[in-house]
Amino acid sequence: MRIKLLGGGLILLFLTALAVAAEQVELNPKHPERYTVVKGDTLWDIAGRFLAKPWQWPDVWKTNPQIKNPHLIYPGDVIVLSYRNGAPQLHVERGGAAERGSTVKLSPKVRVEPLEQAIPTLPLNAIQAFLTQTRVVDKQEMETAPYIVASAGEHLISGPGGKIYARGFADGQDVARFGIFRLGEPYRDPDAQDNAVIGYEGIYVGEARMEKPGDPASLVIARAVREVLNGDRLLALEDRGIEHNFLPHAPAQPVEGRILSVVGGVTRIGQYNVVALNLGKQNGMEVGHVLAAYQSGDAVRDTVSGKRGERVQLPDERAGLIMVFRVFERMSYALVMEANGPIRLHDAVKNP
């Protein structure tokens, strides 16, 4: 599995954001004129220092063509607020004669500053497993995938270094490494007819390396984060670049969905919880989309009107902000960036 920084891909998001009629930019009333980036910062943190709405960052970010990788920000960079024709803009001042990503001669040595030092958009430790391991699967896909039938030594449970045997591989398959998955709980869409299932959580168990094809084939467990059991399924590992640096931006079109699930099974959701949404590629969702979460209003009894049994539906109340970081066809995963009120399962998410 390849994990890489896709800094160049940010350009497309900038162009997309600028092509859409942007709402008026609001500065944070306590904004600084200059801010020096420090290790541990995220793009969301920095945007929030300058802007009342962090997702407006693409509307005010001025790229510096003389700087290599101008879309990436590093510790030590200085973010400067200025104005052009009365409109605020932000740009970076990068010290030193050389640029990030280049080699600088510091006699008698050379210093190389890798791209991995660039600050991320949001806390990567909160979402890393969801970028590289967890996936949404189809039940039929899991039922037809190769499965573990036994382990060497007739162990019911296996771990790293153990040999396992599996059946169900296609003739002539040439995949060398597989993810080991287990079918998790279904994701049900409360807005769909009959509360329809729109996907299943694919629980990541570990990885295995093909040792000898056949029926059964023999494999060696290369990594395990859970106990490997007979019946676990083997899926080809996704060979894709993972975006660690993406820009927060509002959807260009009206969006409305719901929170389906939260990791850990809690019902009250707070900052940096990962949630599953019933919005995916088919709804126009993109990595970096920012949505507002709204607590569903309760139906309360009106004891003053004098009308017996009358109940009133209270309006939804805005409770926080979430950012989408991984998108599937019918679903997506998002991280709660701000929570200024209780957020619950099935609460609505809309344009910020």
Secondary-structure blueprint:
Layout (H helix, E strand, L loop, with lengths): L9 H10 L14 E3 L6 H8 L6 H4 L17 E7 L2 E7 L9 E4 L2 E4 L11 H9 L2 E3 L1 H5 L3 E5 L5 E2 L4 E5 L9 E12 L8 E16 L4 E8 L3 E2 L3 E4 L19 E7 L5 E2 L4 E4 L12 E6 L3 E3 L9 E3 L3 E11 L4 E8 L3 E2 L3 E3 L2
Antiparallel strand pairs: 1-2, 2-3, 4-5, 6-11, 7-9, 8-13, 9-12, 10-11, 10-14, 11-12, 15-17, 15-24, 16-23, 17-22, 18-21, 18-24, 19-20, 21-22
Q: Key features?
A:
352 residues; mainly beta; 7-stranded antiparallel sheet; 37% strand; flat
What does this structure look like?
- The structure is a single chain.
- With 352 residues, the chain is mainly beta.
- The chain has helices at residues 10-19, 43-50, 57-60, 124-132, 139-143; strands at 34-36, 78-84, 87-93, 103-106, 109-112, 135-137, 147-151, 157-158, 163-167, 177-188, 197-212, 217-224, 228-229, 233-236, 256-262, 268-269, 274-277, 290-295, 299-301, 311-313, 317-327, 332-339, 343-344, 348-350.
- A hairpin with a 4-residue loop joins strand 21 (317-327) and strand 22 (332-339).
- The chain is flat.
- The chain starts with 9 loop residues before the first helix and ends with a strand.
